[in-house]
Fold this protein.
Amino acid sequence: MIRKFSIFIITIAACCTLACNKSYLDVSKELAEDRDLEKIFSTPADVRRWQRNIFSGIPNMANYSRNDINGLHNPWLRMCDEVKLRQVTEYNLAPYTVSHNTWSRWSLYQLIRQANVFLENAVEIPRSGEADFISAEELQELKVQARFLRAYYHYLLFELYGPVTIMKESADPESRNLDFARNSVDEVVQFVYDELTEVAKELKNPDYSNQQFLAVPTKGTALAIRARLLVYAASPLFNGGYAEALQLANKDGKKLFPAADATKWPKALAALQEFIDYAEAGHYELHRENTNGVYDPDKTLYELHMKFNKEVIFARSDVNWGTVPNGGVDGWSVPRGARGGSAATGYIAATQELVDAFFMNDGLSIEESPKYSETGFSVAGEDPTGRTTTGTFRMWVNREPRFYQAIFYNGRRWHVGNEQIFFNKGGNSDNSAQDHARTGYIFYKKLSKRVYNLGSNPKSEYRPGIIHRLAEFYLLYAEALNEVQPGDPRILEYVDRVRSRAGIPGLKVIKPQIAGNQNAQRDAIRAEMRVELAGEGQRYFDVRRWMIAENPSGKGAQGGPYYGMDMNAPTLEGFYKRTVIENRGWTRAMYLYPIPLTDVQNSRLLVQNPGY
């Protein structure tokens, strides 16, 4: 028999769970009515509504603006070495502390509780005449999705905080034992791994013919998340490389971080192999598009992010990329010198560190390629691809196709209206307004190039918020292979699949000497991830799991000087000089995020991450 609890009572009493914070352990506001669970879970519409609300914690990758005040979306590109936003609302200029941090994911415990309540109380509702019902088949589908989300939210918590408290049952509001300690890294990883393994057996394969369910988690989603989880577990941050964390213990003395374990990379590789085998059995493929029957990397790299396609493993569908003028990512990215731009737009800026990371069109880095120069400007006919125009600063000439999809630079023309944009002093998009591109670049990736604030042009364009896609897992697969067996030829093969799709030569062709060299291949894989996944929410976590955040500037550094063009130079020539735009704070504590202070203070058992 279903236990009866007033929803109102659950909302109040359950606030003591973990750390007595009502804000993250109540049920959804929509369902916080004075109704008992028996009535809710005997009404098909309420059952579905309860279950659908559990989906609300899936990250919204279209939200990395100033209004994102939690970690459930994508603030991470601005919190690492990819993007710079407006100065007045930046939170990376000083190191995190327990009181100076913004993007918490701790509220996911609310949705984990909601999933647990659902799993414990949802039952089949038999058909009765013409009335709505919940069949056994539908119930099983709803439950396996809820179970996936419970595991996925534990994964998201682990990704940010490290070892967290496992909550696989809803806490009894009448119990006095509502305080919980953290589980260890190995316990959290094993729990999430086991859960994803089980739900993968029941989740459906991706179905691209049904547009209504393209964002629903599938078997492939579970296998992919499980594989990335084990990559985290094998990486230095969680595998003995973070000395401070090795001393972290619960109040009963239980250690939370393990010593280094070399067997974890083979386990990660096995999970990745299972996903790759599944993907290549017809379920996923790298997206490719042609123009007039010829492969077109520029069109491919753009359209990849503009629609659901067979590369997408997991996405959120109810996202809004904004409108022109003045709304969301599309609106806030328009420079002042283009129609739809204003003194309050054009401020989502790419860092010079990201600009420098992109390869040249010969596939080599800017340090290696003979084509690279920071002197002078292009001349007529120098770029037969037409990606740049005559008079472009040579730093930006002959770069790879992904560069032009991601970076909008001085003198380039805005899409549709063809306005030429100048960020230099006195230019139509300079720093005379409070909001402007503070580095002299706009982060251009994933922007719609069809929206325009004039006449019948569309003012907005829908596309999904892609969280994970196949290219990411090709590179993770190469990474795991390299850590386990660096002589495996599949390492460069899978990196080159991504490079070929991007329209640049493969490493096997231009750098055959690195084959089998673990360090050289590791550097190449990380450089490829940096570029291929730019702005997609992974870089913040990658530099931490690799523990390279203290490297020199441009090599993974998350603190110290960050560069751009000289926005204050009085001459155009002076603008084209690398200039420090800010100095960001960094401490080793920032390898992990601080648990909210009030939750630690209100708990007898919860311990804070090291350094806070």
